[in-house]
Each structure stands twice: as C-alpha cells, then as structure tokens.
Amino acid sequence: MSEKMIHRHDKAAIFIHWFNALCWIFLTLTGLGLIKNDQINPIGAWWPSLMRSIFGSGEMLLNFHIYVGLTWAVVFILYIIFRFKDSMGFLKESFSINPARDMSWMIKKNVQLTLGDKALTKMGMGTDIPPQGFYNAGQKLFAQLTVVAGLILAVTGVIMYLSTMILNNPTPVAWSRTIHFLMAGLAFAGLLVHIYMAAISREERPAFKSMFSGSVPESYARHHHELWYDEVKDKP
Amino acid sequence: MKKKYCMVIDSSVCIDCKACMVSCKVQHKVPRGFWRNWIKNSDPDFTLGKYTSMHFQPGGCMQCDNPTCVYACPSGATFKDDETGIIHVNEDLCIGCGNCVKACPYHARYRHPVKRVPDKCDFCRERLDMGLLPACVDTCPTKARNFGDRNDPDSDVSRLLREQETVRIVSRPVDTEPNMFYLSSTMPMDWPGPVEYPAAHQAMVGVVNPLVKVAVGLSGLGVAAMFLKQLFTSDEASHEEKKEEV
Question: How far away is chain A from the Cα of B150, in angstroms, using its nearest Cα?
C-alpha cells in the first residue's frame, strides 16, 4: 500500500542542504584542528596534531579551511541571488514566531522525546502537542541559529582571511577569532540535535527521507506539520 | 641531543655602539621604525667621583621557557621549537590577530607593517643553520653578547653561567623564565611591563570556551536522553501512540 506523498523540497533546496552539511562538517573538523593552544582547545591536543598530519602541515590545513569556507560562502550567495524569492520565503518561515505555540511545543516535545508521554501527563501538561507549520518550533530555532551563525561565521571568516592582506589593526581579527569559535560552537550544539532528529530519531525518519526524495507521506505531514498540511492538502 | 640556545650578556662592557642593532636590522630587513633587538640604558649618574657612570644593557626576545606569547596564540603559529628552545613565528599559519604582540611583557615583538604578522628575534635561525653566530653576537666589538647552547657544557655560555653570577629580568606576576641571562651588575631592571592578554583572548579563555563546552554538553545530554528513551520504547508502542493522537 503506497501512501500519497506530498511535495516538500525541490532539487535546489535539497542540493543546498547537503552542500551546506558537507561544508559545515568539513569546516568544523578542520577548524577544530586549527586551535592549537592548550588553554582553549576544546577536545585536546591530539586532534590538531591529527589534522595537521592528515593535511601535511598547519598551513595546508588553514588553506583548506579558508578555501572551503570561501567556496561555501560564494555558493550560498549565488543560491540566495538566483533563488531570492525562495530564500526570503525560508527566512520568513523560520523567523515567524508564535510565542505561545512555539514555547508550548518546545517544552512538551522535549519532555516527550526524553521522558515520554507518561511524564508529560504526570507533569499535568497533557500530550496534545501544538500543531506546527512548515517547520516546527525546534526546526525554526535551528534555522534561526544557522542563519545567524552562518552570517557571522562568514563575516568573521572573511575578516580573518583578509587580515594579513589589507587590515592594519589586529583587534578586529582577534575578536573575529573569538566570535567565529563561539558561533561555530553554538551551531555545532544545535547540529547534534538536528542530526539526531533526522538520522536516528524514529518518528522523524520521513523527514530524513524527504531530504533525498523531496516529498513526505501524507500522514506524516498531517501529524507533524498540521498547519502546513492544511495549507497544501488541496493543492494538486 | 636537544639544544637549548641562550644568550648571556655582559652589559658592563657594552659601549652603546649599536652595532648589534644595525647588523640585526640589515640581516632581517627590519622596516623603518622597528627593531628586533635593542640597547637600554640606566639613568646617568652625574655625581662627582671616580665611578660616575651610565649602564648600557643589550636585549632582544628573551626566548622564555614560560612564553606568554605562545599561550596567547590561538593557532600555534607562535611556538617554541623543542629542538632548539627558540621561539618562532610561522608566518603562513599566522593570521595577524596581534595577541602575542600584546602578551609579551618585554615588548620584543612588533607587527610587521607590510606582512601584517608579528616579527621578532629568532637568534638568526638562517645563520645558525649555516653554522654562523647570530648577527648581533658576531658583530659585537666588546663581546657583550655571548651566544651558545646551554646543554653543551663546553660552550661559552655554559662556562659563563657556571662561573659568574647571573640575573634574569622577569615580569610580574608571571615568571616568564627567560633564556637571556645578564651578568649580575646589569641595569636597568625595571623595564618589563605586566603580562597582559588582549580582551579577545581573555573572552575566549574565560567565557566563550566554557560557554561552548556547556552548550555542546547540554545538547549532547539531551540527544543521549532521547536516544535512550527511543531504545527502551518499542517501535510499535510509539506508532500506536501517534495514531491515537491523530
């Protein structure tokens, strides 16, 4: 029995998602390898040493990080220019917040996913998770985080890239490094949950599949994104 | 065997001829207005008497064993060479954040105005590779600057360190453990500044790094809790629940 599928992502959106994923993973791994300082190294000296031996030297590691980062930024800018309407739609979708519904979703969904429905009932909240639009509150929060972090990472990255070419004042470079690390760290914290939800969580599996096929089953759309489903169910 | 290069300076014979500063400048093409090494002087003593004097004190990067510049560098572009004890700047890995320039209490580093990376004394690495002495040592007419390997007991510096009383000029509150030794009568002694890390570096160490660790830790805990919950509830049960809700 094949269920009716509902279109959710087009090919360009799927491409930019996986392009972004590959770049961010590569940039996170190489970026961590660039921090060679015992005071601030988050995971220990073995990682920078490993990365430097893989890439041959610290300079090569830095070059790969810089040029993959620049490629990422350029492709993204082109994507936004050529798909301006869709990109603005994405921004509007992920930044439109309904405080009551989103807060309630955030609290209830987190309790449900970690402790279960019984705990929800025990806490006196009921298991009625508020209906969600194209993105649920968690996806919106992660989207907001990636947009803000991506923008700041790109700007601070370019400042550091240009630092030895045109900048005469080292202070913005020093701060760029600190902020770049902060943003990458926060994005990584969000990414952990994002990856879990997509690749490991049982309930969200149709969403993961839709990141390849572009469509989700009708029942999934109705249950997980009810408001969106109501909007699109009558469209052909 | 590993080398431990150091400089032992007899400032009592320095005549302030500045030959060391000039030869260094020529050797390394140090831009106008900047110096890799220097000669400081004590306040002149003009009282009447036999020993009226002024003291000249040659200096340069102290090649510290407790190097605050290395601690301030985020990427390892400034590093202490294990084989020689010399502190180097890897210009290709440096992105010019300037942390190390501020963190040096001896003001031994400057930001190169064209390359926009820090530059400093490296005991003339290229000359050492060719078997030559550092330019400043080679050119000093009174042998105020002595250079050599402290781990070699027959070297000039080992002999001087053994036979004479020496002092190290340290900053406060951190003892930088410099490898520049002065024979004990040297002056002035009070010129190093405090060890100051730039605000961006302090924020990184004190706030941003712990914050990121907490954020990633909490997120990891949440994911682990969700994963455990999923492990211990059966596939069927969760689907049933969903259907009821629908």
Answer: 27
Beta bridge partners of B167: B182
Residues B129/B136, Cβ–Cβ less than 8 Å: no
Cβ neighbors of A50 (< 8 A, separation 6 or more) are A33
Question: Inter-axis angle of helices A58-82 and A84-95, to 10 degrees?
Answer: 100
3-state SS, residue A24: helix
ipTM above 0.90, yes or no: no
What span, in angstroms and rounded, lies between the C-alpha atoms of B6 and B182? Answer: 11
Q: CA dihedral defined by A163, A165, A170, A175, rounded to 10 degrees?
A: -10
**Those residues with Cβ within 8 angstroms of residue A178's Cβ, 6 or more apart along the chain or in another chain:** B200, B201, B203, B204, B208
- The per-residue pLDDT for range A65-88, each reduced to its tens digit, is 999 999 999 999 999 999 999 999
Between chain A and chain B, the number of residue pairs with CB atoms below 8 A apart is 149
> In sequence order, what DSSP letters do the residues of A173-191 get, joined into one string?
HHHHHHHHHHHHHHHHHHH
> Which residue of A40, A167, A201 is in closest CB contact with B74?
A40
A173–B96 C-beta distance less than 8 A: yes
In sequence order, the β-bridge partners of residue B119 are B110
